[in-house]
Write the structure tokens for this entry.
Amino acid sequence: MSAPLSELDTAVKLLREHPGVTGAEALRAPDGRRVLAVVPGLATAPVDLRDHLWQALEPADLPDVLVAVDALPAGAADLDTQGPGSHTFRAPATPTQEALAGIWAETLGRDRIAADDNFLDLGGDSMTAALLLDLTNERLGTGLSLGELLSAPSLAAVADTVDRAHAGS
């Protein structure tokens, strides 16, 4: 296994003490990002573990990405840091992203939404998608379709779609 990243010791300790975690290890990805690999229990959603860290730690103590795995990897090169089960801590950065994050948080009952979050990965379903779509179109003055919402890989991508719609009108 790769040498652990000492700057993420607090995050690793916090997750190892969490009752819904069976293992955690901090690694450096080939692209330089600090990755926290976590083995969640059966009833533990990785995004909830991300939110637990986000609420408990200072920004400097957070990894760049948290990745849920079935078993701790031999090294960071073995991790899929972009697929399902991976969650970043990148905050919304534009006014549209911030507005959407507020709508998503309200609709999904979450305290925080990251720019890279996917609506479905956060527990969204067809009922909440319809509500989210109505609130987004009403509050942001857009005509976003359900297909555009559900096909976007992240909040940031939905925000880009909204911004393009505003630019074209």
Remarks:
- The domain at 95-168 is CATH 1.10.1200.10 (Non-ribosomal Peptide Synthetase Peptidyl Carrier Protein; Chain A).
- The chain has two domains: 6-88, 95-168.
